Amino acid sequence: MRDVKPEGKRARQRRATRHRIVESALELFVGQGYAATTLEQIAACAGVAVQTVYFHFGNKRTILIEGIGVKVVGDDEQVAMIDRSWAQEALTTTDPAHAVEVWVTGSRSIFARVAPLLWILRDAVGADPDMAREWEINQRQRRTDHRAFAQHLADLGALAAGVSADRAADIIYTLFSPEMYHLLTIQCGWSPADWETWIHRMLTDALFAGPDPASPPTPGASSADEARPA
């Protein structure tokens, strides 16, 4: 096994500076808007010279893209989301109900960190071809990851009759879309916990032969609105 060399002092300082710039920029993007934020403001918030921001990133777009990548996985380690411990747990367990629970909970954590940034990226698609390409890359990666999860459930023989791995991937990709999360948590005012409960129920009902008996009950739901959180 190849030894991994410890990170040197200069590399640690450079990484810390990039992290500070990214976190400062994301705070400004969400707080006052992407278009209104300048590199000078980012530099001031991060406590660095504007030339330092230019040296590390060059422009706001690059900062936003790196920030989204960091928030998706939760840190700046070079480990893809699909290779994270929680994702691997969902992709290796032989218990379909547990796999769904882990996948839903992990996805909720990701959305809690990255949803406002994805909306900034999506809003910029029509005016910026580079942002449009980044959005497409993000969408393709999401679909690839959800397809891997769907295939795992298919391999376990957990999918309902008539639900193929491809159809399951389509369902998961749609339910776990940033648009769905934004619509429910921002426009409809649901809490992230409400979103998690509803997504869990919708996913198990759609993919498995019947409702998952381990599915958490919807707080305050009646027979007329049992699919919607109270």
Write down the overall geometry: elongated
Beta fraction of the residues? under 5%
Series of secondary-structure elements, N-terminal to C-terminal: HHHHHHHHHH
**Structural class, please?**
mainly alpha
How many strand segments?
0
Percent of residues in helical segments? Answer: 55-70%
| Count of structural domains | 2
Largest sheet: none
CATH class of the largest domain: Mainly Alpha
CATH architecture of the largest domain: Orthogonal Bundle
Query: Number of helix segments?
Result: 10
Mean pLDDT over the residues: 86
Q: What's the gyration radius in Å?
A: 20 Å
Say what the CATH topology of the largest domain is.
Tetracycline Repressor, domain 2
- Are there runs of 5+ residues with pLDDT below 50, and where? 210-230
Q: How far is the first residue's CA from the last residue's CA?
A: 53 Å
Organism: Planobispora longispora
DNA-binding region: 38-57
Keywords: DNA-binding, Transcription, Transcription regulation
Region (Disordered): 210-230
Structure description:
The protein is mainly α and 230 residues long. It has two domains: 71 residues, Tetracycline Repressor, domain 2 (Orthogonal Bundle); 152 residues, Orthogonal Bundle (Tetracycline Repressor, domain 2), CATH 1.10.357. It is 67% helix and 0% strand. The protein has ten helices and no strands. Helix 4 packs antiparallel against helix 6 and helix 6 runs antiparallel to helix 7. It is elongated. The C terminus is likely disordered.
